[in-house]
Design brief:
two-stranded antiparallel sheet, metal ion binding, metal-binding, binds N-{4-[(3-aminopropyl)amino]butyl}acetamide, binds zinc ion, 10 strands, alpha/beta, Acetylpolyamine amidohydrolase
Length: 343
């Protein structure tokens, strides 16, 4: 299996985050991608290739032009306002405030408009890193379109919390969604997304919610107790033409393999029935028992079972890296999925 990777991911590093009332080193740190890359090399998964520098057009198939301009330019605006450090939003529209559909003018109001949390900041080079993560997803999609059965896009920063015009949950551009659209634009008429990250992929859900050509299935911590909250309930089934093409499997805190794999099996069967021409896996391994920010109890061998079950779908499959924060086991867990897929 080819792995797509670029060291440009180092261009994004929010130093800190707020975790249960304490300022701590961010869990979404550059070391994550290096650990996964080291394991890819250790097991001899296959060649590690640098993605080309793509045009912006395939990113704008998913993200709005105003959001892309905002992400590119907001750090300079922050500096021009006389501020140091990283760009952080800090206040959001409460349910008591009427919705708006146009960005406000002021810097902080616009930052609020284009985000939903403060899991991660925007640094001087976050845009470049996010753009290269999207390139990494595109290169993986192009490898599969070129005839490879599978590919691994080692994206960082991750993407599944980013929507058409918002960032959050450590995500800025939705790498998996950009890859899905690449498959669609190359003529694959139906594409499935299997999101195995511990968190609900609210961005991916938002992007494809009204579409029947993209089936999105996600197993995750129940939004009643887990980030991103508010979205990810089973009742969210898609809307309009997309009704029935969004599948959520919210699961309780402490979920172990039998319960997780039952939901996963149901998702796999629904994907098989969808008759997809390509599959994009949002590969988060934060379901691991020792993940520092998650509450599921999967163990390292379970990730091998996940890879084998995905392989049994017999679909052209792109793996796109999402979350996973237990750095000691991160490489083993992510690469277990990939090696078992290939066996
Ligand atoms: N105290 C992904 O896995 N909240 N994003 C963490 C920790 C943000 C997870 C709070 C979690 C985002 C891609
Ligand atoms: Zn996650």
């Amino acid at each position: 299996m080819k792995t797509f990777y670029t060291a440009d991911h180092h261009l994004h590093h929010s130093g800190m985050e707020l975790s249960f009332g304490k300022i701590v080193e961010t869990f979404e740190k550059p070391e994550r991608a290096e650990i996964i890359l080291a394991r890819v090399k250790e097991v001899g998964l296959g060649p590690v290739l640098t993605p080309q520098d793509y045009e912006i057009a395939p990113i704008k198939r998913i993200h709005t032009p105003d959001y892309v301009d905002f992400l590119k330019g907001v750090y300079e605006e922050w500096r021009a306002a006389g501020r140091d450090g990283e760009v952080w939003p800090y206040s959001w529209r409460h349910r008591s405030m009427p919705p708006i559909d146009k960005a406000p003018n002021g810097l902080d109001a616009r930052l609020s408009y284009y985000s939903f949390d403060m899991a991660g900041s925007i640094t001087a080079t976050t845009w470049q890193a996010a753009k290269r993560a999207a390139d990494t997803a595109l290169a993986g999609a192009d490898a599969v379109l070129g005839g490879e059965r599978t590919a691994f896009s080692l994206c960082r920063p991750p993407g599944h919390h980013a929507g058409r015009d918002f960032f959050g949950g450590y995500c800025y551009l939705n790498n998996a969604a950009i890859a899905v659209q690449r498959f669609r634009d190359a003529g694959r008429s139906r594409v499935a997304v299997l999101d195995v990250d511990y968190h609900h992929g609210n961005g991916t859900q938002e992007i494809f919610y009204d579409r029947a050509d993209v089936l999105v299935a996600s197993m995750h911590g129940d939004p009643d107790f887990e980030f991103p909250f508010h979205l990810g309930y089973a009742r969210e089934r898609g809307e309009g033409a997309g009704e029935g093409f969004n599948l959520n499997y919210p699961l309780p805190s402490g979920t172990q393999w039998p319960e997780w794999s039952a939901a996963f099996e149901d998702a796999c069967r629904r994907i098989a029935a969808f008759d997809a021409q390509a599959l994009v896996v949002s590969l988060g391994v934060d379901t691991y028992k020792d993940d520092p920010i998650s509450q599921f109890k999967l163990d390292s061998p379970h990730f091998s079972e996940i890879g084998a079950r995905i392989a049994a779908l017999s679909l052209p499959t792109l793996f796109v890296m999402e979350g996973g924060y237990a750095v000691g086991a991160l490489g083993v867990n992510a690469v277990n999925v990939l090696t078992s897929f290939e066996q």
